[in-house]
Amino acid sequence: MMSYMGEICTSTSREHLRGFRRELKQYTIENSIVGSQFDPQVNHGPQVSAAQKSRILGYLETGKREGAQLVLEMISLPRMPRPIIFNDTNRDMTPMREEVFGPFVVIQSFKDQKDAVDKANDTEYGLGAALFTENITRARNVAAIIQAGMVWINGSQDSHFAIPFGGYKQRGIGRELSEYALSAYTQVKAVHGIFSHDLGVATGTDTILVNLGTWL
Known about the structure:
By secondary structure, the chain is an alpha/beta fold. It has a domain at 3-109: Aldehyde Dehydrogenase, Chain A, domain 2 (3-Layer(aba) Sandwich), CATH 3.40.309.10. The chain contains six helices and six strands; from the N terminus they run E-H-H-E-E-H-E-H-E-H-E-H. The strands form two sheets. It has a four-stranded mixed sheet with strand order 1-4-3-2, covered by helices on one side.
């Protein structure tokens, strides 16, 4: 959820839950070890720059101002904003509409499967999505209609060189990895040719084209 300090294109930053789970908050507190990236015990190092930290904290203040419920804001260290979790957000709130690119999670509740899918698809982005369920039929049905280039079921961030990587909407053009990646290195060409007078008669071009055999 907050791997790579949230600075990852497939970060699970927008979550749709039936209700806020206290276990999520407690797990985040217990497992967010902030410090130097060179310390093997640390799993949450500094943001890429001071400017990015300021940007993240700006979204924090915006979320508060727009009425989202702040359920977790751990004390920050220099260039190291601790994980931030907002609950009770809606589609009109800035942190729900925009990509923060940091240790930042916004949670929105849903009523049923259709509501969850509609809310998940209500974004201009569409790189990756993860869904969690014990119902395999539901998992397949939802995966088919989620507007994302990659969908994980009961997991997140899995990748393989033989599986295409890329997204929908404002999430890039084309695909990386797999045979689909080769399309970026190819040009499509159509070649049309007529090589006999008889074929020209059949296609109706004999009246406008000379017999190519006389000059080729």
